[in-house]
Amino acid sequence: GIWPEAESFKDNGMGPIPPGWKGTCMTSPDFNTSNCNRKIIGARYYADGKNDGSKTVRDNDGHGTHTASTAAGNVVSGASYYGLATGTAKGGSPESRLAIYKVCTDGCSGATILAAFDDAISDGVDILSLSLGGPQDLKPDLTTNVVAIGAFHAVEHGILVVCAAGNNGPWPHSVTNDAPWILTVGATTIDRNFQSNIVLGNNKVVEVRFRAHSTLFKIYMTYTTLFAYVSCINAW
Predict the structure, then answer these.
(1) Cβ contacts of residue 8 below 8 Å, gap of 6+?
(2) Which of 110-114, 117-121, 219-223 is predicted least confidently?
(3) Which segments constitute the Peptidase S8/S53 domain (predicted)?
(4) How does DSSP classify residue 149?
(5) Which class is 7-185 in CATH?
């Protein structure tokens, strides 16, 4: 799914929607046609037994918004990571349009994945980017792998299919989207630390650093001092 209000999906500087585009913008109580623009030109969701809990294109966990902005997010000035590493953010192809096909909610159904492939081919996309994959111990062969099958049909129609290498790892054989007609690359990380300073009451500066791929979490600090002759009544 996608959170269309994100700055990465503004259509500033983009021309008209290509006349050959045949896609649609599906609506729901929390997503209407105005959420599509010259950047997000298509939006579909798919509901079945595994996806009935979220009949909306809207992103409910950040995954689709993250991957869409990585692939084709527009230029955003003054971006930062919670105030750190300020700079300009943009996707790999910031001038490209986006069509969103939400196939997963609590789970991913093979039927919805194949239906999305069919719709994307019919809509007229040029490139398909799939950020999904299964665990290596459940990897099916190419005759039953829905991603490989759908990608094969897309490539037959001249569409480049780019996939995440897998969904876990790094371990031997953890790459699952390895069909020869799929373009994929393994994950990587940057060799950068983010640093922030904590200034204590005595003006002592404590440097806090974390790796770029670390999980951000709250740190609770307790500052202890002694107050003499303060009664509970007076404290309130």
Answers:
(1) 68, 69, 73, 74, 76, 89, 90, 91
(2) 219-223
(3) 45-189
(4) H
(5) alpha beta
Q: Report cis status (omega within 30 of 0) of the bond before 170.
A: yes
CA distances to 14, 102, 117 from 74, rounded to whole Å, are 10, 20, 25
Question: How big is the chain, counted in residues?
Answer: 236
Q: What stretch of H or E contains 112?
A: helix 110-123
Local structure of 137: helix, strand or coil: helix
pTM over 0.90: no
Residue whose pair of structure tokens reads 């700055």 in the numeric block: 7
Quote the DSSP letter at residue 86. E
Q: Is the pLDDT of residue 234 over 50?
A: no
Show the tokens assigned to 155.
């490539």
Radius of gyration of the chain (CA): 23
Residue span(s) of the chain under CATH 3.40.50.200 come to 7-185
Provide the pLDDT for residue 227.
Answer: 45
Q: Strand ranges (DSSP E) for 34-94? A: 40-45, 76-81, 84-89
Identity of residue 58: R
